[in-house]
Write a sequence for this structure.
């Protein structure tokens, strides 16, 4: 049962991995909660019973923040980005937005709780940590009431980012992969992060506290991987292979390129650098501030049910990029072949009584549509619509072909029959293209 609390808490990045957990915990504590995020529809899927503000946090001006945050007792900044891309700007989210938040809250009694990251520093190897540090410093140098919380590798019931990567890595069939064997890792359960936010909001943590949130134990990535595999209920790998450094770098470059197409793959170059450096925190400051102890990796896994859908997700997460690439290659090649063999394709239609003009338009138009759909599915904002387009176009080809050239059903290579798996693959991809 929710408590009664007259205070208002506004959560930025509220449908993200950490933000949604903070939202739920504050709501259970009885706060009047308002979520802020880039997509109102994504927010309503997260929690349709609270108020939502649709804002691109990196672009909100100070005056708008002043209006939005008026009357707020608590502001939780759980927004963040791992790497700049088509959707995200590190400086915009970690610095510009923070500077404007600080300006908007100057002169108020509002408590600002900043969710940062363990390991931030000016000399960090990634711009993610450096930009986070610059944002943290703006808050620390302000006159606001503030608390900064820095979690290590966050694990959650939700599968996104690092939690999705761990599940997928643990689901590799038969053969395990070994990366960064000497890098140390510490984890924290997202519910413990949310509880820390509740403690801070309730005044149980002194303002001006900067504390890591982490378990006490330290692990290797390979150990974490094996533990997650066991938690998923999969048998141990038959053997493990080390991934060569050049292959990891190539993976990072490919993932970076996808980032500029709107995707957020978990193995971008920033993530690989973070993994190579390791992720560690210090429990002392949080404990001395009165914070509750964070659960260990073992306790976290015990608290999360490993159900059938977990195993489905882990396997499908590995298959999704392969399925998208298959669709793209299939449709692009189909279009290119149509253009290259346009004379044969036109003869096929004119021999069945269709006019030369109609045959020409059909062949060239169909080929261009095929290529456009094959390219569009690679761009994240267009991917689902491209899949639906593939289904519609395939059905149209199927129907028109059956009506105009029914004899092709007797072709020993079965070109019409092969349309059906293409429809199913596009439908499959469209149905699981969900980030949040």
């Amino acid at each position: 049962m929710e408590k009664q609390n007259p205070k208002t808490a506004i959560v930025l990045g509220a449908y993200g991995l950490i933000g949604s957990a903070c939202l739920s915990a504050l709501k259970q504590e009885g706060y009047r909660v308002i979520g802020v995020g880039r997509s109102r529809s994504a927010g309503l899927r997260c929690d349709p019973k609270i108020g939502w503000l649709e804002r691109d946090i990196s672009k909100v001006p100070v005056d708008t923040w002043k209006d939005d945050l008026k009357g707020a007792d608590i502001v939780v900044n759980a927004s963040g980005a791992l790497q700049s891309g088509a959707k995200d700007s590190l400086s915009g989210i970690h610095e510009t937005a923070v500077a404007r938040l600080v300006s908007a809250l100057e002169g108020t009694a509002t408590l600002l709780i900043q969710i940062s990251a363990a390991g931030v520093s000016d000399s960090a190897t990634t711009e993610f940590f450096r930009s986070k540090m610059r944002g943290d410093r703006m808050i620390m140098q302000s006159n606001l009431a503030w608390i900064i919380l820095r979690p290590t590798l966050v694990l959650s019931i939700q599968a996104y980012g690092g939690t999705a990567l761990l599940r997928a890595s643990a689901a590799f069939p038969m053969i395990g992969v070994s990366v960064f064997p000497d890098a140390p890792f510490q984890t924290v359960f997202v519910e413990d992060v949310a509880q820390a936010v509740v403690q801070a909001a309730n005044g149980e943590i002194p303002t001006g506290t900067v504390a890591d949130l982490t378990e006490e134990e330290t692990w290797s990535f390979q150990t974490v991987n094996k533990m997650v595999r066991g938690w998923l209920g999969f048998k141990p790998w038959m053997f493990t292979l080390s991934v060569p450094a050049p292959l990891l770098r190539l993976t990072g470059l490919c993932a970076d390129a996808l980032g500029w197409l709107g995707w957020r793959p978990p193995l971008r170059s920033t993530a690989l650098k973070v993994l190579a450096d390791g992720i560690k925190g210090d429990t002392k400051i949080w404990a001395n501030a009165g914070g509750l102890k964070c659960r260990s990796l073992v306790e976290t896994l015990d608290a999360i049910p490993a159900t059938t859908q977990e195993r489905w997700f882990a396997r499908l997460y590995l298959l999704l990029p392969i399925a998208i690439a298959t669709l793209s290659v299939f449709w692009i090649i189909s279009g290119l072949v149509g253009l290259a063999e346009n004379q044969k394709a036109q003869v096929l239609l004119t021999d069945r009584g269709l006019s030369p003009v109609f045959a020409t338009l059909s062949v060239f138009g169909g080929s261009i549509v095929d290529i456009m759909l094959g390219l569009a599915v690679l761009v994240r904002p267009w991917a689902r619509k491209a899949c639906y387009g593939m289904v519609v176009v395939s059905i149209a080809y199927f129907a028109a072909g059956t009506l105009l050239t029914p004899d092709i059903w007797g072709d020993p290579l079965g070109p019409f029959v092969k349309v059906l798996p293409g429809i199913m693959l596009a439908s499959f991809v469209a149905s699981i293209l969900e980030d949040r």
Observations:
- The chain has a mean pLDDT of 88.
- The longest strand covers residues 145-151.
- The two ends are 26 Å apart (CA to CA).
